[in-house]
Amino acid sequence: MNDHAQQYLASGPNFAEGEVIERIEVFRKRRPRLRDSVVTLAHGAGGKASAALVDAVFVEAFRNPYLESLGDGAEITLPTGQRMAISTDSFVVQPLRFPGGSIGHLAVHGTVNDLAMTGAVPSWLTAAFVLEEGLPIEVLQGIVADMADAAAAAGIHIVTGDTKVVPKGAADGIFITTAGVGLIPPDRSLSPTSVRPRDKVLVSGTIGDHGMAVMLARGDLAIEADIVSDTAPVNGLVDVLLAAAPDTRWLRDPTRGGVGTICNELAHDADVAVALDEQCLPVRADVAGACEMLGIDPLYVANEGKFVAVVPPDQADAALAALQQHSLGSDAAIIGDIAAEPAATVVVRTGFGGTRILDKLVGDPLPRIC
Amino acid sequence: MNDHAQQYLASGPNFAEGEVIERIEVFRKRRPRLRDSVVTLAHGAGGKASAALVDAVFVEAFRNPYLESLGDGAEITLPTGQRMAISTDSFVVQPLRFPGGSIGHLAVHGTVNDLAMTGAVPSWLTAAFVLEEGLPIEVLQGIVADMADAAAAAGIHIVTGDTKVVPKGAADGIFITTAGVGLIPPDRSLSPTSVRPRDKVLVSGTIGDHGMAVMLARGDLAIEADIVSDTAPVNGLVDVLLAAAPDTRWLRDPTRGGVGTICNELAHDADVAVALDEQCLPVRADVAGACEMLGIDPLYVANEGKFVAVVPPDQADAALAALQQHSLGSDAAIIGDIAAEPAATVVVRTGFGGTRILDKLVGDPLPRIC
């Protein structure tokens, strides 16, 4: 059960029991159902199929209050009252090294950024490696050096780890899983339920850079462009944002599935409309060009060093100015706003005065980009 | 740098600078060197090659105070003074299901037990999945159900997770990485540096069950035996032990590499001799028989529901009695003691009045058992 259903339940006293159940059924119908009998690549893409798999298999089995929000990490309250965030991600990107970074950078930045999205100060990281027999030690050392650099840049310590080796052919070089822990300062409270109509939607920089950089690095597309991954730790940039806009409602990093997917999740979880202005989206010309050639909407392409923020209207200009002064936020932009209707929907206002509905990603146009 | 080297450094005032460096050099010479140019299965076996890889690649790159002890998890002190443990493990066992459990049980028990070995109360778990395209959803659901059962039995919540999918042939069905977090009660302090000569060494039950169960489940050995994995959460049993023997010095679960490997680590880290009495080792007859046929010492075979404890001599009987009253500790035994010399060595006293040196595991006789 996610925040949305939970909210219906929490407002129970206002409803007759049957009505509550009916509302939950409505909620359930909104979520995609799992119809597949085997795992497909689409289940790993972060879109509709991923959501269906997570709902049908994991949330169903692990049912507990922590899982209900299904954000970038779980929030724990310690006996002292101190709040703590925990997050984890596996990394299976191919190729292992691409313009702008490596699987090692991603493994650190990915979890650091997930923690930062909860409002936590990322502090401690674990790293578990599944290695394929035959992986050159030199390749491993290079990746581990990237992790050490990334950890230092993000101000996080890699405190413990694990290594497993599987026979040649049983894995693809190296898979890395990191988990991160950080404390949430008392004055920070980020949640989709605090999002209100007229709030502004910001993005911290250009979108689609990472996904396109990895796709082009594979070399099986006949496109020549110098696109560099944006992989970076955004915790410092989040601090800057929250200082300038202390009532920031919600943060999320648009990784797999891109800005389009997380805006859909926000629209559902907050039961609002997210209206994006297509002309305001910061997209590098070469990324836009590659997307057009591939027939992919940049709104669905992954980033690894960006976030989307919802801030109250009166703090939006301060937020934008603060972001733009930071080296990682120079291309930040206000890209849309929140409306009450149509609820649970993302609307894109096109350059021609029209609008289109932006659905969750279906299928997996860009597999294994993280 | 591990506890051992750290201890030399910490006692610095007693040594001239050159002497300290010399002692660290001596320590370094004791640790195996990494001579391989590619990753081999032995690097994942938990023995000498694993230690060399971890030292040369991970500890070298991630150098920080948390990594120095290299135990089952890292200990963090929060700003409130509260101590917390963090641990992680990847699971790549084949077959996915074996007598007594599945990869799902292992993924929960493994991390729960690692946390318990630090003295922490295991409370929150993350679960990250790397799935191979084509994995039947039903198989996944079965594994996830096992994880939910195992989490409930251990009293831990699975609070967040991640799912990645790789193309057919790029993984072997399913790999699971869990990370766990738990708080350490203030009265608990476990460390190899507190181990003293004349302390007693206990094991919580029969050894070698898990490794042999998985080996036989693969069906490529011509041995018929009903050996069942011991996979289980031992946090409850640790509570029982620490209540009966509050001055327990050190705990470790003998997974990969078995009791022999962790006793070697203890001998090195505490700079003592660990003397084991072969006749006191609890080994099931069928496990002993299978080990003999395979030419493997049960001291090197993995367990997933056992621990080794070092307790002060005057609390050993109380510890043993308490363990034996618990369903998971009925076969607990005192298996040896600690001596000052020969330092950094494990000695096995055989049934014939002789002794033999038990070295760290070399190679990987039992690959992918967790």
Helix content of chain A: 25-40%
| CATH topology assignment of the largest domain in chain A | Phosphoribosyl-aminoimidazole Synthetase, Chain A, domain 2
* Unreliable spans of chain A: 1-30
Order of helices and strands of chain A: HHHEEEEHEHEEEHHEHEHEHEEE
CATH H-level homologous superfamily name of the largest domain in chain A: PurM-like C-terminal domain
Give me the side-by-side strand order of the main sheet of chain A. Answer: 9-11-8-12-10-13-14
Oligomeric category: homodimer
CATH class descriptor name of the largest domain in chain A: Alpha Beta
Radius of gyration of chain A: 20 Å
Largest sheet of chain A: 7 strands, mixed
Explained architecture:
Chains A, B: One of its GO terms (biological process) is protein maturation. Chains A, B: Belongs to the HypE family. Chains A, B: Pfam families: AIRS, AIRS_C. Chains A, B: It comes from Mycolicibacterium agri (Mycobacterium agri). The structure is a homodimer. With about 375 residues, chain A is of the alpha+beta class. The first copy, chain A, has helices at about 5-10, 15-30, 50-60, 105-115, 135-155, 210-215, 235-245, 260-270, 285-295, 315-325, and strands at about 75, 85-90, 95-100, 100, 120-130, 155-165, 175-185, 200-205, 250, 275, 310, 335-340, 345-350, 355. Helices cover about 35% and strands about 20% of the residues of chain A. Chain A has 2 domains: about 70-190, 2-Layer Sandwich (60s Ribosomal Protein L30, Chain: A); about 190-355, PurM-like C-terminal domain (Phosphoribosyl-aminoimidazole Synthetase, Chain A, domain 2).
